[in-house]
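Sequence in, structure out. First:
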Amino acid sequence: MAEKLTPEKIEEIAKNFEKIQDKKIPIIKSEKETVKLDYGSLDNMRPEDKPKVKAPEKRVLPLIKPSDPRLLMQIAPFIDDTLKEFNFKDRVDLSKVMYDTMVKYGGLGLSANQVGLPYRMFVMGGHPQIEDGKVRSVFNPLINDVSKETVNFKEGCLSFPFLFLTINRPKWCSVKYTDQHGKEIEETLHGMSARVFQHENEHMNGYVFTDLVSKFKLERAQKTRAKMLKDYARGGAIR
């Protein structure tokens, strides 16, 4: 049913028509026609009058199962020439897809083999309370030194949803890698950043964090996980 034309509606249509005549609102024609937008005029428009621009879709990769052989084998050194085999333009493109995927699943780190890619690389960071949200794209990581002092802390892993294990790790680590621009980086990481780097680096060598605890601790954590998943399935709160 057509919308009833009230005096107010007629006045609104008239105003919009005046804006179109003054080139303040672009006329969107068919997809085959090219329309030149007057962005100078658009800057002076009210936000509600500006045409809506759809944000580009993000490429997000699916996580593979923790039993998948690709997650349980050592990864060969990264070579840039292999990027085209999986439709990546360059390191920056791969890093963006990896970061968007990590954020989608709510992680602090994500290794390429967790999404089935045969690359010795991972991304980490992005949390506002850890190094002010700094993000690292890490290619061909090396851990050169670690502290003698260790810290016990509860960890999770995107490959094992709702499974949390207390892992003992060095407090700091000195590392070397190349970033998304191919620049060589050497730095010493502390606290949570050191822990995440060590966790993701283990993925590069085919280890998962369940390998680092006793059978008893793993079984106890799996029971807790099962209860959490049951609560989640029922729509209850995760405690």
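Second:
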Amino acid sequence: MFKLFEPNKIFKITSKAPKYVLFLFIVVLSVGLVEALIISPEDYKQSDAVRIMYVHVPAAWISLGIFSSITLLSICGFVFKNKNFFLISKSLAPSGFVFNIIALVTGSIWGKPTWGTWWAWDARITSMLILALFYAMYLIVWRVYDKEEKVYKISTFITILGIINVPIIKYSVDWWNTLHQPASINILSKSSIHSSMLYPLLIMTAAFALFSLLIFLMKYNTELIKIKNKGLDRL
């Protein structure tokens, strides 16, 4: 089983993948931008300001999804003593953090024309800011500590604490009176958002997911090269 995690074998696959992912990303992003900026209608209340949604919402979704993945991988790595899980987590974190910041910035830009203010200590905004702090702590730990075992323990502890915040972000609009509206998209029931806005939103989400995958592959390949340079045959 450990032969599957040999750097040479993994690198043969991951080193070729970025160019294909980049091509797909450009195609999907191009379609998404046309749908979001040209084809999709303006909102009857927010007018063209609603188009910020096509960046803000996917960025938030991707950020939450990546942090959840990092937590699961970190726990699995700690339980099964598999370094590759930690390496994947470390490589995923930068894109998750970037999209977290994008979600906060675009939310602030969107807030000005809709709420009349750049920032409000709304429950969802505040919980997203807290998530960004957990991302920052996670990344800093990998920078500060040299001993692998110590990094694994501390980073896993940070993700376990941080994952508690994820359902708070999700259900904050239901638990408290917030400036954010309730969820417009429901998997188990009919969504309130019209298909003319839903499809561009899903396409842009796919584009952002591909971009996250591209950043991950670049970071992961860099980590594998470092391992190969150390003369290690496997993780």
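Remark: DSSP finds eight helices and no strands in the chain.
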